[in-house]
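Notes, p. 3: input format for complexes.
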Amino acid sequence: MNQSMLAIRHTSAEDIRELIDLAAQFKADIEAGREVDAGPRRTIGLLFFENSTRTRVSFEQACNYLNYRVVNFSGSGSSLSKGESLKDTILTLKHERLEAVVMRHRASGAAQLAAEYFGGPLVNAGDGQHEHPTQALGDGLTVLSHKGKLEGLRVAIVGDIMHSRVARSNAWLFSKLGCEVRFVGPRTLIPGSTAKLPGEVYYDLRTGISGADVVMCLRLQKERMTEGRLSSLGEYRRLYQINRRTLKWAADDALVMHPGPINRGVEVDDLTADGPQSVISDQVTNGVYVRMAVLNWVFQKQMAAVAK
Ligand code: NCD
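Output follows (308 residues plus N-carbamoyl-L-aspartate):
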């Protein structure tokens, strides 16, 4: 199983560093217009059972740069709508000889299950509220390229922690690489289970982001809120929005991040999302390079496992 990328929680700091380094090399090659040496040409299945813009396109673009072939598959329009199970779907793709599968699914834990059925490399592109490892790797590369280091930085993750797989993967990644991680948001959106994540909880925005080197905003994930978690959007905005006034509480050179899609004017205002401290567009671009790194790395691991 070590050839899959399922969760940052189960990835060693050494592997995370290796992946970020590899992504930085790919970035340098692409920006210099050099050919990328990605080894044998692979066939990758992209399975998206949930909506996606950035993640899906960036995996596809990563495959283009690596010169890998892509087979696209979406939940609707497949036999899933005839009631086929995840197991039979994955086994079908295995017998059709796809060499790796990238999967996004609404259920937490689906990636692990699918990797067991598939048996070969599987990359988790987001499973429910559990993890989104390639988003965190891209965010790690983004912070590293702006700050020159990760160790010792204070990273405040602000907003809807409860429903966010991005928050979970990033908390693991930044803490494993020596950062101080903080979760900031209303009580109703920071679950008790956050206690099992590496980071301190703050319910007050000012204290939570004070001195932060990175302020990571999260989208309010209304589609996952089955019960009323917010008394009003206006109140959320007033207490937790990142804007010119509240950003002053963080370090002067704090980076503003957001995994997208943004609810503009809710978790972050326009001036800040598009302002000089924002690195949101770099997160998107770096997403391509880390996905190249992960897709290339899963095969290297597989070859190493065979060679043993
Ligand atoms: C996130 C996701 O889908 O987990 N987006 C992304 O992949 N960049 C965050 C979100 O949907 O809010």
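The CA atoms of residues 239 and 279 lie 23 Å apart.
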